[in-house]
Design brief:
Elements: H1 7-13, H2 18-31, H3 39-48, E1 53-58, H4 64-69, H5 77-84, E2 86-90, H6 99-111, E3 116-121, E4 124-125, E5 134-135, E6 138-139, H7 140-149, E7 151-157, H8 158-163, E8 176-177, E9 188-191, H9 198-211, H10 224-227, H11 231-234, H12 238-242, H13 253-256, H14 275-278, E10 315-317, E11 320-322, H15 324-366
Parallel strand pairs: 1-2, 1-3, 3-7, 7-9
Antiparallel strand pairs: 4-8, 5-6, 10-11
Helix pairs in contact: 2-3
C-alpha cells in the first residue's frame, strides 16, 4: 500500500515554510473550537498523521451542501481538497465520470478498507426498492451500504443525510430516511443544516484527520463545539427580546430597526447551531442578520414543524418559561415603574430645591 503524506510532509514537498505551517495549525486550532493550549497537539498531529482518504457520496438531495462546502474560507475549500485530505471520490466535484470513475471507487474501497472517511450528502430513498434515487445505475441505498462496510467513520452532511431531508416531509412518498436509519455499527457524526455552515463541514473532516477520531458529540450525534449553543443565545437581536421589543411585521418600523423576530416565527430559541457566532461566507452574514427569522434548518423534522411564520408558544428564559407577551409586559412594566420612580425622585429633588431657594430668599430679606 502506498504511503500517504502528512500535512507537514506536503508543505515541505511544496517548498512552504515552517512559519506558514504553524500559521495553518493555529488557524485549524481556532476553527475546531479547541483551546489555544491544544496548539502543540495539533502541530504534532499535522506532522505525523497521514492525510485522510475521503469518499463522498451523494444521495437524495439538491447538492446545496456541496455549494456550501466550496465556499469555505477558513480554511479555503481548495486547500482542504488539494492539501489536507485525499478526496478520492465525489461524483459532483470530480472531473472524472462514468464507468472508469466507478471502477476507481471500488479500487479505493478495497485498498483503504477500514481507513477511509465516508462523507454522505443526501437522504436515503427506500421506496420501491430505492429506485427513486439511482447512482451509477444502482439504487443509492445499495451503494451506501457497500461503501459503509469499509468506512472508519461516517459524516452525515446536511439535514437530508442527518434527518431524511425535505423529501421526507409528510407524506414522504419516496420513504426517504437518514443515513443512520440505514447504517449502524459505525462511528457516525451528524452535521445538519440546509445547508450546513461551510467551515463546520471542513472542520469536522480536519478534526478526524488530525486526531483520528470524531469530536465530542451531543445527545443527537452532533459535534458539541458547533452545535452547543442556541441561535437565541448568540443572536445580536437578543437584547431586544429581553427588552420586550418585537417586530410585528417584516416591513414595520421595529423590523427595520433590528428588533427581535420571535413573533414572526423565528425558531432561534429552540435551534442549535453556530450561525450567530460563525455566520456565513467568512462571517459576512446569516439569515437573521438579513432580516428573516431562523427556520431551524438544523433541527430534525423542521420542514413539518408548523408554519415558518407561526411563532413558538413559549420561550425558555433563565429560571422559567415565558411567552413573548409576558416578556413584553414585564419589560414594559419595568419601564413604567422606572419612569414613575424617576418622576417621584425628580419631584422630591425639585421640592428640596424650591425649599432651599425660599430659605435663601428669606435669609436675604432679613439681612
Amino acid at each position: 500500500m502506498e504511503t500517504r503524506d502528512s500535512l507537514w510532509n506536503l508543505f515541505q514537498k511544496r517548498g512552504m515554510s515552517r512559519r506558514s505551517f504553524l500559521k495553518i495549525c493555529a488557524t485549524l486550532t481556532g476553527m475546531l473550537g479547541l483551546s489555544p493550549s491544544m496548539l502543540s497537539k495539533v502541530v504534532a498531529a499535522a506532522e505525523q498523521k497521514a492525510l485522510p482518504v475521503v469518499i463522498w457520496l451523494h444521495g437524495h438531495e439538491c447538492t446545496g451542501c456541496d455549494e456550501s462546502f466550496i465556499r469555505s474560507q477558513s480554511p479555503l475549500a481548495s486547500d482542504v481538497l488539494l492539501n489536507m485530505i485525499a478526496l478520492e471520490y465525489s461524483d459532483t466535484l470530480a472531473a472524472a465520470a462514468g464507468e472508469p470513475f466507478e471502477h476507481h471507487l471500488q479500487k479505493i474501497m478495497q485498498q483503504y478498507a477500514g481507513q477511509y472517511i465516508l462523507a454522505v450528502e443526501g437522504g436515503v430513498a427506500l421506496g420501491d426498492e430505492g429506485t427513486y434515487c439511482m447512482v451509477g445505475g444502482r439504487p443509492f441505498v445499495t451503494a451506501l451500504k457497500e461503501a459503509a462496510k469499509g468506512a472508519a467513520a461516517i459524516i452525515e452532511y446536511g439535514s437530508c443525510a442527518a434527518w431524511g431531508g425535505i423529501q421526507a416531509a409528510k407524506p414522504n412518498p419516496t420513504k426517504s430516511v437518514s443515513v443512520s436509519d440505514v447504517i449502524s455499527g459505525k462511528p457516525i457524526i451528524k452535521v445538519p443544516g440546509c445547508p450546513p455552515i461551510p467551515e463546520i463541514m471542513t472542520g469536522i473532516v480536519m478534526h478526524y484527520a488530525l486526531f483520528g477520531q470524531l469530536p465530542p458529540l451531543d445527545s443527537q450525534g452532533r459535534p458539541k463545539q458547533f452545535f452547543g449553543n442556541r441561535i437565541h443565545d448568540t443572536c445580536y437581536r437578543r437584547p431586544f427580546f429581553d427588552s420586550g421589543m418585537f417586530a410585528e411585521n417584516f416591513d414595520d418600523a421595529g423590523s427595520k430597526a433590528g428588533w427581535c423576530l420571535y413573533k414572526l416565527g423565528c425558531r432561534g430559541p429552540e435551534a442549535y447551531n453556530s450561525c450567530g457566532n460563525m455566520r456565513w461566507w467568512n462571517g459576512l452574514s446569516y439569515p437573521i442578520q438579513s432580516g428573516h427569522g431562523c427556520i431551524g434548518c438544523s433541527s430534525n423534522n423542521f420542514w413539518d414543524n408548523d408554519s415558518f411564520y407561526q411563532r413558538l408558544p413559549n420561550v425558555p428564559v433563565p429560571n422559567h418559561f415565558a411567552d413573548a407577551d409576558k416578556v413584553g409586559a414585564i419589560a414594559a412594566g419595568a419601564a413604567v415603574a422606572g419612569v414613575i420612580a424617576h418622576g417621584a425622585l425628580s419631584a422630591v429633588q425639585n421640592s428640596k430645591r424650591q425649599a432651599k431657594e425660599q430659605e435663601d430668599r428669606a435669609g436675604g430679606m432679613r439681612a
